[in-house]
Amino acid sequence: MPYSFLLTGGGTGGHVFPALAVARVLRERGHRLLFVGTRAGMESRLVPEAGYEMEFIRSGGLNRVGLRKQIQSAIQLPVGIAAARRILRRFRPDAVFSMGGFVAGPVMIAAVFSRIPLIIMEPNAVPGFANRKVARHVYRALLGFESTRACFPPERSEVTGLPVRPEFFNLRPKAEGAFSVLITGGSRGARTLNRASRESWPLFRERGAGVRIIHQTGAIEHEVLAKSFRDSGVQGEVVPFISNMPCAFANADMVVARAGAGSVNEIAAAGMPSVLVPLPFAADDHQRKNAQSLVDAGAARMLLDAEMNGERLFQEVESLRKNPDVLSRMRDRVRQFAHPGAAERAAEVLEEAALTGR
User: Fold this and answer.
1) pLDDT higher for 10 or 109?
2) pLDDT-derived band of residue 344, with 50, 70 and 90 as boundaries?
3) Domain 4-164+339-357 class?
4) Under a CB-based contact definition with an 8 Å cutoff, are residues 3 and 354 in contact?
5) pLDDT digits (tens, 9 = 90+) for 160-199
6) Cβ distance 8 to 97 under 8 Å?
7) Is the four-CA dihedral 289, 294, 296, 297 of positive or negative sign?
8) Most buried residue among 38, 111, 209, 236 by CB atoms closer than 10 A?
9) Class assignment of domain 167-337?
10) Where in the chain is the domain with CATH 3.40.50.2000?
11) DSSP strand pairing (95-98 vs 118-122)
């Protein structure tokens, strides 16, 4: 029986791509879907490109932002909730799925007020601000880490992992060509990684490391970095955004990345060795805790943001490049964090909630 589902979540690719993975399963099963996002987030481009209907509300963050932004977001919150409730009344979903991000707060509150089953995805080791606030009201909380279950009703939570595009699970280690390093600070880039990458290029060239670098910079700093890279003499390319990240992983021997849930789960699904550089200002320091979970299992290395510079990046890459046995162990150990059925399980829970509601 086809149902209607509303999906929300956005701001960055780390929120949007997992929601799209769930949407793909739901669409294949014949359900009617609607996304709710903001015009400022990446969902405004990625969701329509994937062929889904979308509506917009206004929303902003309240946690770990400045006072001015908090005031602005607090003023927008009632307006966002009202807009979300109008959308819910018009679309009449059987259940709501939230992937998080600024837009999710008003939609989740509206779903609770409207008594529509709410399924949330919390992929980080520490739950986000909005998810903590609605924890007691969820139909089901789908989690990335076992430790997070303490924050939700145990009978209404389960560890599923983060929905990841299936292409990541089918990748095989690159067998030939120059040793390739994929550097990504996420869909919007990371200033620290951009700076460290740029500082490392003369070291790779002067010391004859023979490394190929693929760097996703984000749009803001791309032009300057691309020009500098063209003059560096290093193999590779510098791009603002990588739309086909599974292909980028397939052509890399290791990844240097932030430690958001999206990056960590894609790395695990692909069995990719990595150096993780947690964002120091992430809410509740959740990126460091995400990275630490992998480090404790010998599945990744971690550098704090303050430690990351061109010399350290060069050292970490060379250390792994020269030790294929270490790379192989990291590939084996990181796969324990992979959850290949997460998108399908999220779809099953949504269908269960819809059936129960009817």
Assistant:
1) 109
2) very high
3) alpha beta
4) yes
5) 999 988 899 999 888 788 999 999 988 788 999 999 999 9
6) yes
7) positive
8) 111
9) alpha beta
10) 4-164+339-357, 167-337
11) parallel
